[in-house]
Every structure is written in structure tokens, then in C-alpha cells.
């Protein structure tokens, strides 16, 4: 999801011209400069001198980067550094022979032969910035370089969100969205080998730069690595999602779920997560997403791979089961429609929490050392609640938010903070109205849960802009607390989570341990949990019967 951006520019433009005297004595108008490179991302991010993209495939330490470049000059340099504000350049390589290619295909750009850059084997896995410079301009592309031996440097893994970045890229004239596609018509298929743009990587740059600044060791990998390798996540204790991770293949989700089931932990600092299912061509160079189940050729043939929302027919696999929340019950912060603003900081009806999160259980270990109390607001100054936020359905019980489970969210999801949102994709069909939610509106719900009895713990800060608040003391401390707590696997039940025995039919309330937070539930709360669990099972069974 996103808001419309400025209209696209034309594919080519002349920079300047000059008159020269030809052999016939006639003046002829010739270009002083070559035609400008076309890399207009239609979000105030435009590159006219040089641009490039990376070939699809595994990128790891000791391996290679294969770059394709369009440039107004044949000479250019490649500079590589770890992403982050203060990280220094690690490698510079010069090349010659670049051509000036047109961005005239959204499925296959074909910008000449690849330029190969060898990745030193002693580099540490991470998110890296690959900067192209031809003396007239520069263009930054970003890449997750995985470890040749996953988990050898750190048991904390940060995943990129490459499919989502490609989905929004308009290079070649089309994206998966109408607002930045030619003739306003989105494509159902886009090439993975296209530039992604600087703006799409903001949250990853901020987050991994902060990790390096804080001395927190991490490794990185691409979502495409997760798609290809079912064993990847098993090398880690904690897997982190950042920013905007909207597009997932069945393989990605299956591998994610299996990792959690076998005891792996996760921390989601991401919004609008796991919203669409996609497929990839066999060579992983094409991404397919019809966004309309009936239009997908696999409808009725292999419904598990139909490219629509995960919660929708015929997939019927709510993302809440895997990440605890959904965008359909969250929404936007600071949203404008027909000139009306919704949930704007300092705007009408702002209770002081718009743009930030309000604490609902300050005794929990994630708030240790923050100085926050129940009702405190954090992250508002930097607007970490935005621009898209996910939530779980909940009702208030004894002034405490309790998940209902009606949306597929595990009933042990413990809500620790909330933020108001404008639910544009509400199942009610009425934007902003979520009838079966607290106050009949959208909410972002920060908290943690276990997908099953023996799984790892999943922390959820369900907002795209979390990384932009890391320099706030409370936000940084919460993030550190989460990483420190979850970077090691445990073989015993995390007693800071309410365990309702999902998966074995036994209901059990686990009391809080000394690490703080949670506590036991009141009888009324327990009754609501039991009823909502029964409702979810009945609805699920009814849906299965309809599909038969």
C-alpha cells in the first residue's frame, strides 16, 4: 500500500545542444550531451546521469556482484560500503564501456553485459550500499550480502524486503501499482532485475546503521535467499524484519513458519507486512502478482499459490497466524482523503498518542530502563507510528487490551502498546470503521506472542517507520531489550507470554516470572479468550466447507 506520488516524467530528455559546421557548410543541430539516463522513481528521486541494477541470484561473502549500468559516460566507478551514516568506503573499482540504455521494459531491461565486482571473503555479512559514479552524477543501490557460512558471525539475521522494493519500482514504465505505471495500469508481472531506488531503503539504512552504531552484531540476507533456501533461518536465533515487507511467496512464508515452529525467535519492526502473496519464475527473474484471485491462472488449480491477500479466498491463510497482526485491522497514520485528515499529530481528536505508541503494560521487560509508565507515549516526536501500521483485533477487559482471536491472531498475543490508525482496508467495507474492534476503529498493536506451544517468541512493532525513531532514548532502549532477550533460543516456555495451548487443545495460563510484565489474566479475560478461540475455529471450519 502507498499514497499516490508525483506524475511520471518522460522516458528520455535532451540535456543541451550545440551547432556545428558540417562539410557542406550547413549548420546541423547535434546533442552536446547524450540523452539523459531514465531512472525516475516518481517520488522526488530521479537520476539522469547514471543508474544501475543487480542481477538476480545469491550474493554472499566471497562471491560476486553482477551489475548492469546505464550511464551518460562510458567511464564510471563503483564504491561499496556498509549501509549506515558513518560507515566508510570499503572498495572502489573503475570500469569503462558503459552504454546509455533506455528504461523501456518493466520485465527485462537488458542494460548490456554485467560488470562483476568480487566480494572479499573477509567482509562481514550485512546490508551494503553500492554507489555508481560517472563524474557527472551518482546512483546508490543497496544489497543484502549473506554470509557464506550463515550464523558464523552473529546469530541475529536482518532480512531485506527486496520483493517489496521491486514491486514499487516504476523503472521500465510499470510497477505492481497503477499510480506510477504508464496509462495508470499496473502490471501483474515485473522483472526482479531493475533499479529499486534510494528511498525504498530508508528504513533498512537507518536500522542497520543503528545496529553498527550500537555495536550490535548482525548478519543479513535477502528475502530471495529465504525463498530459495529452507535451511537459511535455522542458522539463527533471531530474525528481524524492517520497514516495509509487503510481498511474500509461499516458500518464504512456509520457511518463516517452520523456523518459528522449531524454536526460532523473530522481531518485526515492519508495517503492512505479509500483505500479498507472490510467485516467481523458475529463474527468479520475474515476480508475479495478479492481486485478483479470479484473474490468476492458478485459481482453482493450485489455490495455495494464488496471488491475492493472504487472508482472502482462496488462500484462507491469515497473516495474523504468522506475524500476529494485519494491515486490514490497522491502517494509516496521518492519512488524507478528499481533503480530510485522519489521525494527524496535533490534529483534531488527537489524544496525544497520534504518531506514537501508548503503553498498556509498563511492567513488561521490553520497557525495562525506559522510565515509561502505563499511559506514557513513546516515539511520537519522530513519528514512528506510520505511515502504515498493522494491528490485531482486541477488546478492553478491565482497562487492558485483550486480543479476540477472531482475525487469526493467536490468543496469547500480549498487547503492550497501541496507536490509533485509519483502517482504509477494513473488512467492514467502510474505510476507518472496524466494527469488531475496540472503539470500532483501526489500531496498531505492539506486543509479542508464540505461534504455537513450542515455537519461538515473536515481538511485533507493526509500523514501517520504527527505524526513524531509534535515536529516541525510549525507542532505542526497547529495541535493545528485544534484541538482547530474543537473540538466544530457549527450550522452556517464555512465561512472559500468555500460553493458551493453541495446537494441542489445552488451555493454560502461565504466570509472570521475575523478568516483569504480563501477570495472570482475570476470569472474564480468560472467558473471552476461550469464546474467541471457539469462534475462530467455527469460522475456519465453515470456510473450509464452503471451499469444498
From TrEMBL:
Residues 105-471 form the N,N-dimethylformamidase beta subunit-like C-terminal domain. It holds the Pfam family DMFA2_C. It comes from the Bacteria. This is N,N-dimethylformamidase beta subunit-like C-terminal domain-containing protein. It comes from Thiothrix lacustris. The lineage of its organism: Bacteria, Pseudomonadati, Pseudomonadota, Gammaproteobacteria, Thiotrichales.
Amino acid at each position: 500500500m502507498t499514497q499516490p506520488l508525483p506524475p511520471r516524467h518522460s522516458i528520455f530528455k535532451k540535456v543541451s545542444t550545440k551547432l556545428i559546421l558540417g562539410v557542406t557548410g550547413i549548420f546541423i543541430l547535434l546533442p552536446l550531451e547524450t540523452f539523459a539516463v531514465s531512472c525516475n522513481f516518481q517520488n522526488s528521486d530521479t537520476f539522469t546521469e547514471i543508474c544501475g541494477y543487480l542481477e538476480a541470484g545469491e550474493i554472499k561473502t566471497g562471491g560476486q556482484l553482477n551489475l548492469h549500468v546505464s550511464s551518460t559516460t562510458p567511464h564510471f566507478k563503483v564504491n561499496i560500503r556498509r549501509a549506515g551514516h558513518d560507515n566508510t568506503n570499503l572498495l572502489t573499482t573503475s570500469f569503462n564501456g558503459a552504454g546509455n540504455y533506455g528504461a523501456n521494459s518493466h520485465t527485462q531491461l537488458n542494460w548490456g553485459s554485467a560488470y562483476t565486482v568480487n566480494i572479499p571473503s573477509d567482509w562481514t555479512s550485512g546490508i551494503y550500499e553500492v554507489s555508481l559514479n560517472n563524474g557527472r552524477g551518482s546512483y546508490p543501490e543497496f544489497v543484502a550480502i549473506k554470509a557464506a557460512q550463515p550464523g558464523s558471525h552473529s546469530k541475529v539475521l536482518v532480512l531485506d524486503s527486496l520483493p517489496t522494493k521491486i514491486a514499487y519500482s516504476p523503472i521500465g514504465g510499470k510497477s505492481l501499482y497503477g499510480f506510477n505505471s504508464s496509462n495508470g495500469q499496473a502490471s501483474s508481472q515485473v522483472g526482479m532485475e531493475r533499479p529499486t531506488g534510494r528511498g525504498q531503503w530508508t528504513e533498512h539504512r537507518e536500522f542497520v546503521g543503528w545496529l553498527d552504531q550500537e555495536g550490535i552484531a548482525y548478519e543479513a540476507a535477502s528475502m530471495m535467499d529465504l525463498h530459495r533456501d529452507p535451511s537459511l533461518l535455522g542458522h539463527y536465533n533471531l530474525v528481524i524484519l524492517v520497514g516495509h515487507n509487503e510481498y511474500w511467496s509461499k516458500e518464504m512464508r512456509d520457511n518463516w513458519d517452520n523456523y518459528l515452529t522449531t524454536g526460532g525467535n523473530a522481531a518485526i519492526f515492519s508495517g503492512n507486512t505479509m500483505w500479498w502473496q507472490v510467485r516467481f519464475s523458475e529463474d527468479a527473474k520475474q515476480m508475479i502478482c495478479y492481486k485478483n484471485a479470479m484473474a490468476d491462472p492458478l485459481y482453482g488449480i493450485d489455490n495455495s499459490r494464488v496471488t491475492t491477500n493472504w487472508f482472502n479466498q482462496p488462500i484462507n491463510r491469515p497473516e495474523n497466524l504468522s506475524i500476529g497482526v494485519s494491515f486490514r485491522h490497522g491502517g494509516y497514520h496521518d492519512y488524507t482523503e478528499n481533503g480530510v485528515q485522519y489521525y494527524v499529530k496535533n490534529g483534531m481528536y488527537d489524544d496525544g498518542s497520534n504518531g506514537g505508541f501508548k503503553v498498556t503494560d509498563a511492567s513488561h521487560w521490553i520497557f525495562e530502563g525506559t522510565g515509561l509508565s502505563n499511559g506514557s507515549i513513546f516515539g511520537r516526536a519522530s513519528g514512528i507510528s506510520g505511515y502504515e501500521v498493522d494491528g490485531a483485533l482486541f477488546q478492553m477487559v478491565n482497562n487492558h487490551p485483550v486480543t479476540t482471536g477472531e482475525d487469526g491472531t493467536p490468543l496469547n498475543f500480549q498487547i503492550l502498546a497501541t496507536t490509533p490508525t485509519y483502517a482504509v482496508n477494513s473488512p467492514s467495507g467502510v474505510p476507518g470503521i472496524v466494527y469488531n474492534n475496540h472503539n470500532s476503529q483501526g489500531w496498531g498493536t505492539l506486543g509479542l506472542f508464540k505461534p504455537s506451544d513450542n515455537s519461538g517468541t515473536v515481538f511485533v512493532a507493526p509500523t514501517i517507520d520504527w527505524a526513524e525513531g531509534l535515536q529516541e532514548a525510549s525507542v532505542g532502549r526497547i529495541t535493545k531489550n528485544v534484541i538482547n532477550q530474543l537473540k538466544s533460543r530457549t527450550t522452556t516456555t517464555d512465561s512472559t507470554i500468555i500460553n493458551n495451548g493453541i495446537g494441542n487443545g489445552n488451555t493454560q495460563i502461565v504466570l509472570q516470572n521475575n523478568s516483569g510484565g504480563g501477570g495472570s489474566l482475570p476470569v472474564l479475560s480468560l472467558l473471552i479468550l476461550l469464546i474467541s478461540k471457539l469462534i475462530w475455529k467455527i469460522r475456519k471450519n465453515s470456510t473450509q466447507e464452503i471451499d469444498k
